[in-house]
Amino acid sequence: MTQPTDIRRDSGHLSTAVRLAADGVPVLPLRRGKLPFGNCPACARNACGGRPNMKTPGPCACPQPCHAWAAATTDPQVIASPAWAPAWRHAAAVAYHPGGAGVTVVDLDDPAAVQWARETLPATRTVTTTRGEHWIYQGTMPSANAVRPGVDIKSLAAYARWLGNGTGVTAPLPDAVRALAVKVPAAPRKAAQSLTEPLGGRGGVCPHRTPTYLDRGVSMAVQRITEARSAIHATVYRTFLAVLSTHGRCGCLTDAHVGRLFSAAQAKGESPRHCTDAWVNALTTLGL
Fold this sequence. Notes:
With 288 residues, this protein is α+β, with helices and mostly antiparallel strands. It contains 10 helices and 10 strands. Strands 4, 5, 6, 7, 8 and 10 form a 6-stranded mixed sheet that branches. It has a 4-stranded antiparallel sheet with strand order 2-1-3-9. It starts with 12 loop residues before the first helix and ends with a helix. 38% of the residues are buried. Mean pLDDT is 82; it is low at 1-9 and 189-205.
């Protein structure tokens, strides 16, 4: 298909955008500061009723690149249209809608966050950023900011800056990443369940992980709780959820493993009741 002639006059961002769109990646221009362009006069303050708070899924109906991530498109005629031309002339970068491309970006904003990911998450396609890395997984999920220090999740209803293809093979989106965006539910009002029955393992050998892998995973979970500097309750819950998502269905977790997790949480100020509530909530969330 013949591309619009505007592409030949582009300094690079428009050409990149059209190339990505041809690969099925919905794109939009970014201005300085890595920000989307403001809504057009007709859509200012969402007067058009188009995308309140930018939460509604689907493409933007405005002919200009309005409503941030919702403007992302794979249509080359829209991307190179006269309505988008002013934005491209002033664009500082190209962005894309990860959820629309079927992926999730774990945005690691500093070296400490990158180190955490290397110790905690499955290896996947990695893109170097100005201050850290983007880890890209196949699959979508709700986006969430500040899920832990220096870590944002960008997938549905969000945009990420395009920084190249990166290196490595894109891995499936792991439960450990999904768990980061899960909001901590309110503690149940009923009495906390006893530790022995719901928290103990069945004493079997994990069929898909080695004992060394399990011990290392529990040690890393303990370290994650111990090193938390804020949002302790949320960190404890998300860590319990991550451990259970990996080992909760095979019966390899023992009371000793759970006791280590509880001890780490209580050393950070969590009460035994809060620990049990967080564990029970995690079991319920995972359907265990």
